Write the structure tokens for this entry.
Amino acid sequence: MKIDRKFDPNPEEIIEGGFRTEKDKDGNLITVRTYKHVEGDRVYYYDNLGNAWEEVLTEKGKEVEDTTKIEITGDVTAEEGAIVLDVPYEKSKVDVIVDGTVSGELASVLLDERTDTSNVTLTVWAITENDNGNLAERYKTVFNAEKGDWEKELLGADEEFEQEIQYIIKVEQPEKGTLAAEGTYEYEGYDVAHQGDEITLKVDLPFGYRVRNAYNGTDVKVKLTRNNKGQYFLTVPRGGGVMLSVTLERVPAVITYYPEGGTINGSTDPYVFRSCIAFRPALLEAPVWEGHEFLYWNIQTVKKDDAKWVAPDPASDKQYAPGDLFYLKNEVITATAVWAEK
């Protein structure tokens, strides 16, 4: 607010970078200096031409609580800063959510040198580095005499603020079952985490399916590895951009028939039958062994799959007749012929 008051230029009150160029009444280019003067709870700006302004938000304004919330769906890009934060007052709260990628040529996030980030919350899906390798940079505004315009001068990364950025963790649901990320927390309806947090995948699938591979990424997908608990996991990278997905496959099952002296299809070798779990094939017809009577197939489990795949045993014992339907509940089983001499 411009006021009718005069201040004498004081070198101690000059604003760093606070000067501009303009033409006087005769058309000559002159340099105008800007100063800041504080009297108690009042803040004034003035220049060496005799102009003076009282700051609209004075020091008393620091006691006023206000909240600014911005939520954007989609990417945010800009020539300078995609997100510019100028929050000089301690009780001014700013909450920015971008469900997309934040990218700025000067810096993706610009923080004015006066900004107090204790009340600033930034939530994004992804954020890109600038040429300095930084995500968030402090800046000050200076006047470029050659260009005759104000511009932002970078002061360096705000690494502490970068660590506080919340990254939205997204999942791409499989065709069957559900996929979720564990290790996140909920914020304003989004699953979020910080750089360096470990996220594990929780997959609930219908019987007969398992995860073939797990990935992170959109256009380019990177395979995830398993931790010592056998869970697929991801460490949230600097800059975010997490999109979790899985590919599925039918769980394979193998029945190996051992004729134990008899023959199957004219051979004494074991006969291997491969199928998919959750399929219920009929057991082979009885093998042939002269002078012996086939009694039953003895079913044994060689390797159990994960417990969640195990279905109820369709019989109370392990004796099965040829043609019986056997529910494939394990990965690898054996069917051994049991004989009696005639």
In short: The longest helix spans residues 159-164.
